Amino acid sequence: MKEFMMIFVGADYADLGLSPEELQTRMGKWFAWNDKMSQAGILRGGNALTPQIRRVVGKNRTVTDLTSAEVKEIVGGYYLVEAKDFDSVQEIAEDYPDYDLGGTVEIREIMVFDR
Q: Model-level pTM?
């Protein structure tokens, strides 16, 4: 088995103007998906990320503070999962709650270095 990261990219919920009820329903879908992966024994970790972004770029280390309102899409969170291959993770990602909001799941394999 290998480890993969599913990176969630999309608009910030606050920018979408979701009602409190819509937000609660959406969070319920996230909790259900998390529980499903936990019960299957494939979830290794993950977290949601705040919409505040600090970028440090280049040789001069130029610092820019951004919010979700200033960028079209943000990385809103990630999960680490254990799976056989990309196809298996793509199957897991079928239950991603934010596809209906135009959200994206980027799947990346964790690189393992031998020492």
A: 0.89
